[in-house]
Amino acid sequence: MFNESDAPQPPKVLNTPLEIVANLRQLLDSHDPLIITFHERSQRFQSYVVDVDRDSNSLALDEMIPRDGEKFIENGEPFRVEGFHDGVRIAWECNTPLTITQVDGHRSYRGPLPEEVVYHQRRNAFRAALKLSQLVDVTLDGTHIKGNGALRGKLLDISATGCKMRFEGNVEERLQLGQVYERFKAGNPLGLVDVMVELRHLHFEERINTTFAGVRFHNLSGQAQRKIESFVYQLQREARRFDKDDY
Question: Which listed residue, 36, 66, 110, 167, has the most CB atoms within 10 A of its CB?
Answer without folding.
Answer: 36
